[in-house]
Amino acid sequence: MTRRALWACCLPVLALVGCGQVSGIPMDETATAFAQAICPKAYSCCTAKQLMGNAAAGASEPECEANTTQSFRQQLQAMDESDNAGRAKYDRAKVDACLAAIRAATCADLTTIHSLSQIPACDTSFATPQVSAGGQCKQDYECIGGGICQRPAGSFDGVCATGVPAGGSCATDRCASSLTCDGLTTMDASDDVCVAEADNGAPCSDAAGCKSAYCANDPAAGGKTCQTPPQPQCFYGGGCSTAGGRPAVSGLVLLFVVAAARRRARRRAAH
Fold it and tell me: What are 61-118's pLDDT values in tens digits?
């Protein structure tokens, strides 16, 4: 797993506040709806081998529904905390549009993408941000104008900021939401740099720098280039198979409703 994937999927779980509906978010209903929309599609469209990459998919459709429901419930609790604190406003209409798109999607649609966020209706954080630049935050989706919640190492609290620009170091601070942190295939964080994800055919060092999330040797180019994955993909086959965009919330498997950067889980420096 790349450091991008580790950042997106393995942040410590936030201290979640309450299990009710203080802000009016129907947690159990919504979590169950996502599980019942996703899991039948996963088990009819993806192979068992593909699903092994996502713990939430389980080993059977009923197990998938149980795991997925629990993950979404936890994420909605985090959003409930943001809503109650006035840092973001939950948008049920966007959730309903995404659910409708998942239900309407065919296997032909779902085996050409590697994340639910590649469904246009699901390319959203499902929340309206309420925090201006410089304001206190816990999640990226709380920041107005596509900002990110820049947090000190080891802290869940931070401030909304624009993030590191292209070409800047992401060894300690995170990249702007439109960029990804490229580790240049080394394990040395000091050479990590913020870059825009590249189109197919562009040179690459690893999958983190490609819009397709696939970087491979290209004999004609004399090196690695971004390419279309050579086999059918699975929209729910990886631990970061998310809808919503930029990862910001917790170490939950899906990072779905509360994610807010653009479409793919992007590798950034862990905080």
Answer: 999 999 999 998 988 888 999 999 999 999 999 999 999 999 999 999 999 888 888 8
Residue 247 included in any domain: no
Instruction: With both helix axes pointing from N to C terminus, report the angle between 92-104 and 27-45 in degrees, rounded to the nearest 10.
Output: 20
**CB atoms closer than 10 angstroms to residue 224:** 19
Distance CA 82, CA 97 (A): 22
Residue written as token pair 């960029």 = 179
Q: For residue 247, with 0-12 CB atoms within 10 Å meaning exposed, 13-18 middle and 19 or more buried, which class applies?
A: buried
Report pLDDT digits (tens) over 119-158.
Answer: 999 988 889 999 999 999 999 999 999 899 999 888 989 9
Instruction: Give the residue among 124, 120, 123 at the shortest CA–CA distance from 105.
Output: 120
Q: Residue 202: inside a domain, yes or no? A: yes
Any domain includes 270:
no
Number of domains in the chain: 1
- Burial code of 9-47, b = ≥16 C-beta within 10 A, e = fewer? bbbeebebeeeeeebebebeebbbbbbebbbebbbebbe
